[in-house]
Amino acid sequence: MQDKRIVEYHIEESESNFTVGDIYLGTVKKLSAGLNAAFVDIGYEKDGFLHYQDLGPNINSLNKFTRDSVAKRQQTFKLNGFKLEAEIDKFGKISQVLQKNQAILVQVVKEPISTKGPRLSCEISIAGRYIVLVPFANAVNISKKITDKDERNRLLRLLSSIKPPNFGIIVRTVAEGKDVAELDRDLNNLLEKWEEGFKTLREAKPKEKIIGEMGRAPSMLRDMLNDSFDSITVDDKDIYEEIKSYIRTIAPDKEKILKLYNGKTKLFENFGIEKQLKSLFGRSVSLPGGGYLIIEHTEALHVIDVNSGNKSNSETDQEATAVSVNMEAAREIARQLRVRDMGGIIVIDFIDMKKPDNKKLIQDKMKEEMHNDRSKFTILPLSKFGLMQITRQRVRPELNIITGETCPTCGGTGKITASILVSDQLEHNLEYIVGKQNEKGVMIVLHPFLYAYFTTGFPSRRMKWFFKYKTWIKLQQDTSLGLSDYKFLNGHGEEIEIKQG
């Protein structure tokens, strides 16, 4: 979150085993001369796609290492005495390099999306906090975002001196200004990971994971954690300990901003996230100044329409209104692209503007707002028809949270008993639980509208319960519940099943 607004939202699916960065021992199932690509089985229901361009120049060295490791001829993970094979031709054919049923080491670069299997690469790399380790290469490459010439030279000299033979290194932006001890520790961690992978490879069967990417939470912190972070809040003890030990390794000074949340209300409810999620993922998204966006998804591209709504009366002329709404829309669209992780081609229909300066202003605003987006993107100027085209790389399936709720009363049938009766039904159940079962420390979790109904006025309905049952009934709001949904919890926080005859 940034300024209390969600800017990125990730879900880690426990059954999804194919995470970007995972390295597998795959089997070549089919070679396609027309696509100049191979289809590789790594255990997913659809074979992974490996294009010739993603083999990398040192594929022959990787294949030799894989063969020798599986056959136990390769005795060490180190590549000191390993003789690199000749690089492949940049414009060659896949059949010259791979053959059917061959075992091959591949890395997931795109998770399975829609009807497609995972996208694979043979340019193996292991990402750390400050550097990325690239086996079978020798170059040291510095992130283009490090612009200071002296700093680039320092990092180049430093890493060239500590890197092991036949390993290449990519220096990440966050390495700027870091001393040799931190970089060396990061390099050793990556070499340890490579060593563990080598040991697994020697005993591996086809489709087995050789090196796994870390969990979603630590990997996000590895890539994103910087000085602008002022709080990390976790509501799960195990994940808290995992993140704590990881932060201690990569950024000990940031350990104090990590907090374990023990509040009574749900974490997302407490920070206003639940409510934001409901409004963020719908087809229509409101803008603060009164305009709104309509977001449509098709197989080929995403279309976003910008509408002025009731904003159209507030400015002096049409052009000023258009610019004002479009500026707001650019900010919200940049956030929507990140939150939903929308990829491919995105076409935005901004409100028409006459002046070229204003069109340029909107393009600059879009670039500025997308500056912090970690995905690769390209923004084209507004076309003659006022359309902006953006391409954005996507490596994970797009998030599409269903914001329409199935009616909790009718279960989607379209017929309900009068909704006004929900309060009577709740009070009837309360009478049974507190009056007849004599349950102590009862809490009712309910929608904010119901909460307001029971707590407003004097005396409020909750106050009347107190006089009737001689015990105070706690009420807790939860926006994730449906309007007429509620549940009873006992003193231990467990849900009370209502079993009435």
In short:
The chain is of the alpha+beta class and 501 residues long.
Structural features, described:
This protein is of the alpha+beta class. The protein folds into 4 domains: 1-18 and 213-280, no CATH class; 23-212, Nucleic acid-binding proteins (OB fold (Dihydrolipoamide Acetyltransferase, E2P)); 281-392, Aminopeptidase (3-Layer(aba) Sandwich), CATH 3.40.630; 419-489. Helix content is 31%, strand content 19%. It has helices at residues 59-70, 149-162, 180-203, 216-224, 237-250, 267-270, 273-280, 318-340, 356-369, 422-436, 448-455, 461-469, and strands at 23-32, 37-41, 48-51, 103-110, 119-121, 126-127, 131-135, 140-142, 167-171, 209-211, 232-234, 258-260, 284-286, 292-297, 301-307, 344-349, 377-379, 387-392, 443-446, 474-477, 486-489. The strands form 5 sheets. Strands 1, 2, 3, 4, 5 and 10 form a 6-stranded antiparallel sheet that branches. Helix 8 links the parallel strand 15 (301-307) and strand 16. The longest helix is centred in the middle third of the chain and has 24 residues, at 180-203.
